[in-house]
């Protein structure tokens, strides 16, 4: 007799585990299948994000920033610390402990909410059945009224730089360096590349970033991207745009990377190479040939705005479907799907998903960029406020960057909030809350913001949209 559930979720990442917990909370019998194991061979829930993505990279970013501050910036505060050293093994160890605590926390939440955790590989069969292949190789078929596919993504491999996880690593390998590489190459100037490059640059690596695109951070607002490029270059990241990697050769402990740019063919020798050119959906071995679920040529599962696949009762969420590959997007899709299974009419607002790059300064945005709005023919008013004019930022010795608010010129409705600087992610979230309720720039300008806070920069930028900023000179209307 096979097991039967109201909901079976394949994948226990931020999309899958959240969907499973929500389903159980709504009274649905729920199972969640996950095959990922930690270094000790034990089941590790949380997916890429908790194990080898968002969380461990933030741990290293915070540790490396504290080291950088102690070494280079404590003197400003009158703090003398002498010779500062970084114990890389201890930093990596701390990161691993945080990961262990959080993955264990998900297991506890499953238990507390009555989610059945199943270890192994899940494959969707026809007729709303799932084949579970257990770690010992035995199989079992599980039936479900509803199935949620949340198998996530994995790093993209590129033929010119095959990953060996020793000298050439992917984002997972870059979280495990036991020493600071002297010369580090990062292939890809996206979110992952910039974050990992920052970590090792702060600790003393000479970092070169090779980006095939001619434009830096094309998804960000142009003003923000320009400021970011200037700041990262100042921090020591050698960012080469229009640099297409054509090959690599491992020579003992070194790697010679070949690339072409405007000046022709180049090659540089490095101690380590991180390949961070993006991620691709994990849909191989996920679907039986007769499952009925359609995927596109890049491996993404076709879904509608409610994450329904071509098979009734089968849903797909997170990195395996269209849209931004972000943990918070996956989680909210999981919630939406489960609530719709229960009969609610829940919809997700895909226009207001915040994006964050956890470098220092932090970069974050929500809504549309100025260049997108101009291309769409929308007339806008723009207000900016620099952190250099923020008392709170001055007190913290963190005055780089600015807040930018974009509003519709006719209605004053806020269409985008873009921040580079301290607390960018938190400030953008404030903007997102307002935008969800259709805020105007005037609305934000009329609110009382506590003083002194970084949030006042958002307040002032909103005031600046209509020429009413107090703590900077307003631009004269043409």
From TrEMBL:
Pfam families in the record: Pyr_redox_2 (PF07992), Pyr_redox_dim (PF02852)
Comment field (misc): The active site is a redox-active disulfide bond.
Keyword annotations from UniProtKB, A to Z: Cytoplasm, Disulfide bond, FAD, Flavoprotein, NAD, Nucleotide-binding, Oxidoreductase, Redox-active center
Encoding gene per record: lpdA
Species for this entry: Pseudomonas lutea
One GO term describing the cellular component: cytoplasm
Name of the protein this chain belongs to: Dihydrolipoyl dehydrogenase
GO BP annotations listed: 2-oxoglutarate metabolic process
Intracellular or extracellular location(s): Cytoplasm
């Amino acid at each position: 007799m096979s097991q039967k559930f109201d909901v079976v979720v394949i994948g226990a990442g931020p999309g899958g585990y959240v969907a499973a917990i929500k389903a159980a909370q709504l009274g649905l019998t729920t199972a969640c299948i996950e095959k990922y194991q930690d270094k000790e061979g034990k089941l590790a829930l949380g997916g890429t994000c908790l194990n080898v993505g968002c969380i461990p990279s933030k741990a290293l970013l915070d540790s490396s920033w504290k080291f950088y501050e102690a070494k280079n910036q404590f003197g400003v505060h009158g703090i003398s610390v002498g010779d500062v050293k970084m114990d890389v093994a201890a930093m990596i160890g701390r990161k691993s402990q945080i990961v262990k605590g959080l993955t264990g926390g998900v297991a506890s939440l499953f238990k507390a909410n009555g989610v059945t955790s199943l270890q192994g590989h899940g494959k969707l069969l026809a007729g709303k059945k799932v084949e579970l292949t257990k770690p010992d190789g035995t199989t079992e078929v599980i039936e479900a009224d509803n199935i949620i596919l949340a198998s996530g993504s994995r790093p993209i491999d590129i033929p010119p730089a095959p990953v060996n996880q020793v000298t050439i690593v992917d984002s997972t390998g870059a979280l495990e360096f036991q020493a600071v590489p002297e010369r580090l190459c990062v292939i890809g100037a996206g979110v992952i590349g910039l974050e990992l490059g920052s970590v090792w640059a702060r600790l003393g690596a000479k970092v070169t970033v090779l980006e095939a695109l001619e434009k830096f951070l094309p998804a960000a607002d142009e003003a923000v991207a320009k400021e970011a490029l200037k700041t990262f270059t100042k921090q020591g990241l050698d960012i080469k745009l229009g640099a297409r990697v054509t090959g690599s050769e491992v020579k003992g402990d070194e790697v010679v990377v070949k690339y072409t740019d405007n000046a022709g063919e180049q090659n540089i020798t490095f101690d380590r190479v991180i390949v961070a050119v993006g991620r691709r959906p994990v849909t191989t071995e996920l679907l039986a040939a007769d499952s009925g679920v359609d995927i596109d040529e890049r491996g993404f599962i076709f879904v509608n705005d409610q994450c329904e696949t071509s098979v009734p009762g089968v849903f797909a969420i997170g990195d395996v479907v269209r849209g931004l590959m972000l943990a918070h997007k996956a989680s909210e899709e999981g919630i939406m799907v489960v609530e719709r299974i229960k009969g609610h009419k829940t919809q997700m607002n895909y226009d207001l998903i915040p994006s964050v790059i956890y470098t220092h300064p932090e970069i974050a945005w929500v809504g549309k960029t100025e260049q997108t709005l101009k291309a769409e023919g929308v007339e806008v008013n723009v207000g900016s406020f620099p952190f250099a004019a923020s008392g709170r930022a001055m007190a913290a010795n963190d005055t780089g960057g600015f807040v930018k608010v974009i509003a519709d010129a006719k209605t004053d409705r806020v269409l985008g909030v873009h921040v580079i600087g301290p607390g960018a992610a938190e400030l953008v979230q404030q903007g997102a809350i307002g935008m969800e309720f259709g805020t105007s720039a005037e609305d934000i300008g009329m609110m009382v913001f506590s003083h002194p806070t970084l949030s006042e920069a958002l307040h002032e930028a909103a005031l600046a949209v209509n020429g009413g900023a107090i703590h900077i000179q307003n631009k004269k209307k043409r």
